[in-house]
Specification:
By secondary structure, the protein is mainly alpha-helical. The chain is 63% helix and 0% strand. The chain has a single domain, classed as 434 Repressor (Amino-terminal Domain), CATH 1.10.260.
């Protein structure tokens, strides 16, 4: 398998998990997309992009959104032997 293709799939899988955690936390807090947009000082369409795993967003915005719902984005580098 092409390394570039594998990395793209891995990045998509990671973002899907992050988005799932964000949406779960939003639901538990009854936080709507419009409210999250206001808290992030951005537009509702930007929040839609943030919550779409196929769209490119910055790590910074993911971290800000996670912090607003009481979560933290943590990236670990694990070496496989």
């Amino acid at each position: 398998m092409d390394d570039g293709f594998f990395e793209e799939l891995q990045a998509l899988a990671i973002k899907e998990v992050v988005v799932w955690h964000l949406t779960e936390a939003m639901e538990k807090q009854s936080l709507f997309k419009a409210s999250l947009a206001t808290l992030l000082k951005t537009s509702r369409s930007q929040v839609d992009r943030l919550l779409d795993p196929t769209r490119v967003v910055t790590l910074s915005i993911l971290q800000r959104a996670a912090a607003l719902v009481g979560r933290k984005v943590q990236i670990e580098d694990e070496v496989w032997n």
